[in-house]
């Protein structure tokens, strides 16, 4: 490892000084450099290049499990080996932070029972949807984003954005999801107890399509955990890299993440490392 350090920093520091500081001889260093590269060392070097490419293309999002699953056939390696190479070279995934709740559940409107009750398993698309609202900071003010997530495959099937957090926002996201999927009677649509989801307009839309309404217990974010997880991914993996001057800039970034990256390219452990868009074809 000391000889490797000297070689990698040979253009920054004098070799003699580095040998002295690391307590190795110059002759030992030069003898080491003349040795032919071992097959294992060469394989690790080539594997590391592939790891770096996958990590960069994922915008530094993927950790060792996802990188291992995305290795090409000719570069297949164990997760442990990938993790060791990543640690040794300072390659790590972005850390996901938690965000506070957005919707207001202090109202006198009727609320539905918690039918989902943290059972996030499904056997087919359009069986259980989760919905929620989050916020994005811009220099013009907040941009609110409503989303609808199909638990089967974790695909975001509907979403809408606006400068105001009104009932129309969540209705627009739900209408888009219905139009895209053709979901029918009996679908369970889960949300928190926010006033937008308890509103007459939203409830009327659910009843019109004969959907079953489910709501989280008050103050329990775990009842909507996969939806909360999606918001964290969106912000940590994508939006936190930007400072938005306008809401239009933020909308563009949200579109890129959802439609170009998340639904079509981002692999998920819950999908056996298949992107949401391909779940119907693969599972």
UniProtKB/TrEMBL annotation:
Q: Which Gene3D superfamilies match?
A: Ribonuclease H-like superfamily/Ribonuclease H
Name of the protein: Integrase catalytic region
PANTHER family per the record? TRANSPOSASE INSF FOR INSERTION SEQUENCE IS3B-RELATED (PTHR46889), TRANSPOSASE INSO FOR INSERTION SEQUENCE ELEMENT IS911B-RELATED (PTHR46889:SF4)
Give the SUPFAM superfamilies listed for this entry: Ribonuclease H-like (SSF53098)
Query: Lineage in the entry?
Result: Bacteria, Bacillati, Bacillota, Bacilli, Bacillales
Q: Which GO terms describe its biological process?
A: DNA integration
The chain positions of domain Integrase catalytic read: 121-283
Role of this protein? Involved in the transposition of the insertion sequence.
Question: Which Pfam families does the annotation name?
Answer: HTH_21 (PF13276), rve (PF00665), rve_2 (PF13333)
What is an example of a GO molecular function annotated in this UniProt entry? nucleic acid binding
């Amino acid at each position: 490892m000391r000889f490797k350090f000297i070689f990698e920093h040979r253009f920054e520091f004098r070799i003699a000084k580095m040998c002295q500081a690391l307590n190795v001889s110059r002759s030992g260093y030069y003898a080491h450099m003349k040795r032919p590269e071992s097959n294992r060392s060469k394989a690790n070097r080539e594997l590391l290049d592939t790891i770096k490419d996958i990590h960069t293309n994922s915008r530094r999002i993927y950790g060792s499990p996802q990188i291992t699953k995305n290795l090409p056939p000719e570069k297949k390696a164990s997760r442990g080996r990938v993790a060791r190479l990543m640690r040794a070279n300072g390659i790590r995934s972005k850390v996901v932070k938690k965000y506070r709740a957005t919707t207001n559940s202090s109202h006198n409107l009727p609320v539905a029972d918690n039918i989902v009750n943290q059972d996030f398993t499904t056997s087919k698309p359009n069986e259980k949807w989760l919905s929620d609202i989050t916020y994005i900071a811009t220099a013009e003010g907040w941009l609110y984003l409503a989303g609808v997530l199909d638990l089967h495959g974790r695909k975001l099937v509907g979403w809408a954005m606006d400068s105001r957090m009104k009932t129309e926002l969540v209705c627009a996201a739900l209408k888009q999801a219905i139009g895209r999927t053709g979901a029918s009677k009996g679908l369970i649509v889960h949300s928190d107890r926010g006033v937008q989801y308890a509103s007459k307009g939203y409830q009327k839309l659910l009843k019109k399509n004969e959907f079953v309404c489910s709501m989280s217990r008050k103050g329990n974010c775990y009842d909507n955990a996969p939806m909360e997880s999606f918001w964290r991914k969106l912000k940590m993996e994508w939006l936190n890299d930007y400072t938005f001057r306008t809401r239009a800039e933020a909308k563009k970034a949200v579109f890129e993440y959802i439609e170009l990256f998340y639904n079509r390219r981002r692999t998920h452990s819950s999908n056996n490392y298949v992107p949401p868009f391909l779940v119907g074809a693969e599972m």
